[in-house]
Request: fold
Amino acid sequence: MAVVLVSGGLDSMISAASAKAAGYRILALSVDYNQRHQIELAAARRVAHELGAERHIVLPLDLSAFGGSALTADIDVPKDGVQPGIPVTYVPARNTIFLSLALGWAEAAGARDLFIGVNALDYSGYPDCRPEFIAAFEGLAEIATKAGVEGQPFKIHAPLQHMTKADIVREGARLGVDMGLSWSCYDPAPGGLHCGRCDSCRLRSKGFEEAGIPDPTAYAVKPQD
Reply:
């Protein structure tokens, strides 16, 4: 059994599918942090159902009270193309917070495995997607929990860690999942469409294109590199 972070995005979907393919029973955790793209929570419910999660918790935790991100505050989502550096869509300490919540549920449920869908594309922009972060959190889990202290350490699985977006799309195809159930856009367009202009839309579209697999996503505007 594993606690799997399921945001509703493509990466978290393929991470969850990897857990299922490895034989884990899935406890799916999504966080309603009052994000701009609330529509992703509907996708998370679809994904959890599609993958046969034994339980799916959507936990309310309003990070807009802190702000500091284009996803949680009145800050425009960039739409001029992917730029170097840490983007304003970075949510302060988000993965640290989410993994802490997943760790709490895992310990309570008797699970010792956690899955998160971080990947190589996020290294340059998001500090909490790096391998060093995953390793450090795993070490923290061992010393911060009753289970860890008693010799039952936790394993943080990041199966997409060294994949490009194209690799992730290919893996989704190999696993046979319906990637059209996922949601990536940071700033949804009217009618429930991906905007096609934010970084996440551009990376998603490019991933399908480079993988040579038809993109099932409905965009308001065709994404450009």
Remarks:
- The longest strand covers residues 26-32.
